[in-house]
Structure formats: C-alpha cells, structure tokens
Specification:
By secondary structure, this protein is an alpha+beta fold. It has a domain at about 25-40 and about 50-95. The protein contains 2 helices and 3 strands; from the N terminus they run αβαββ. Strands 1-2-3 form a 3-stranded antiparallel sheet, covered by helices on one side.
Length: about 100
C-alpha cells in the first residue's frame, strides 16, 4: 500500500473504534464492501438487533494498527444505530 492509514477520529465515536480521517484505497474499498454487506444483512434482522460475524481481514489490519493483539478467531458485533450509522465492536478485545 502506498498510502498510509490516517489518524483515528476522536473516541468515543458512535460508529466504534475503526474511524479514521483517511484510509489507503485498498482498505477503503474493502471497508466499503463490508459496510454494504452489513447493510444488506441488517435488512433481514428484526428490530435493529445486533449480530456477529467473523472479523474481516481489513478489520483485523485496522485493529492491529490501533495496537490491539488480534486472536486467531475474532468476531465483530454489528449494530445499526440508525439506518445509516453502523456500529462495530469487538467484545473479545474489550478489557
């Protein structure tokens, strides 16, 4: 990747930890694809419930960039706070 990961936006952020002022194109495209897939999944979930899925390779890279030690198996909890605001958390990394 020729670009670098930008600074993390001030926390707490309602969207979760993976909010940056910019991302390299490859990571941004992967994050956009994940967001689109999560949005489709949210349409099938009733009542705005949260759900879990395996963390994506990009989420793992970004979490490691923030200094987290990433376990071999890591789940992402996804919840839509509003129709357009997705929040992701990683309960295994919360201490």
């Amino acid at each position: 990747m020729s670009e670098t990961i930008g600074g993390q936006l001030p926390q707490p952020d309602p969207r979760g930890w993976l909010t940056f002022d910019h991302l390299p194109r490859e990571l941004r495209n992967a994050e956009d694809s994940t967001q689109a897939a999560d949005h489709e999944t949210s349409k099938t979930m009733s009542g705005g419930s949260s759900w879990q899925r395996p963390a994506t390779p990009t989420e793992r890279v970004l979490l490691a960039h923030l200094g987290y030690e990433i376990p071999d198996e890591l789940d992402t909890t996804v919840c839509y706070l509003t129709a357009g605001v997705r929040k992701r958390t990683w309960p295994a990394l919360d201490h």
